[in-house]
Amino acid sequence: MNRDELIQRRILASARLLFIEQGVENVNMHQIAKMAEVGQASLYRRYTEKGDICIDIVREECQPLFDEVKTYLELSMGLPHLDRLYEVIVKFVAFMEIKAPWLCSVSRATSGYRPLQSPLYQWMRTTCQELLNIAVQRGEVADLDVVYTVEVLLAALHNMDCHMRDQGFSNKQILTGLHRIFIEGLKK
């Protein structure tokens, strides 16, 4: 690992620790630089604002999910694409059940907070669109507007933590509903 990568690692590790200890909204760039033992100029050369650090933290937090799904998709090539899509949804829901509070607080600290544009949702958007496009090409589903269908799915997934916390829906209820609407509902 070169010097720049080491500095970036220290910045992200320090920011993550401060965010956990004090809450994202209570941490400033000066505190991050001080804890990471880097000059403010070094910090600002890499990150112009706290939100940029948050984006990299979100990306790092999501990497295990990205890797798990990539492996699953490589090993499940022979399955129907809607089944593969559902398994991606299951993995996403399980990941979000654990990570939602942390990811939401970190994501909200980015300037121009737009949750469905975060690295996690961009990845999910691309993955779901690819699977649905292939399902349409192979005649597994009726012809549909893939882009809009995925946006509706992402909206449902984005509100999952509210559904669990505020309405008391279980993981199983959410997955059953998503399966009925986005898997069974799309089959020919």
The average pLDDT is: 88
* Weakly predicted, low-confidence segments: none
- How many distinct helices? 9
SSE order in H/E notation? HHHHHHHHH
Q: Got a strand count?
A: 0
What helical percentage do the residues reach?
over 70%
Content of β-strand: under 5%
Class based on secondary structure composition and strand pairing: mainly alpha
Shape: elongated
The biggest sheet amounts to: none
**N- to C-terminal distance:** 51 Å
Rounded to the nearest angstrom, the radius of gyration is 19 Å
Q: What features would you describe in this structure?
A:
With 188 residues, this protein is mainly alpha-helical. 74% of the residues lie in helices and 0% in strands. The chain is built from 9 helices and no strands. The model has no long low-confidence stretch (mean pLDDT 88).
Layout of helices and strands:
Blueprint lengths: L2 H20 L6 H8 L3 H7 L3 H26 L5 H28 L10 H19 L8 H13 L1 H7 L4 H12 L6
In short:
With 188 residues, this protein is mainly α. Helix content is 74%, strand content 0%.
Task: List the defining traits of the structure above.
188 residues; 9 helices
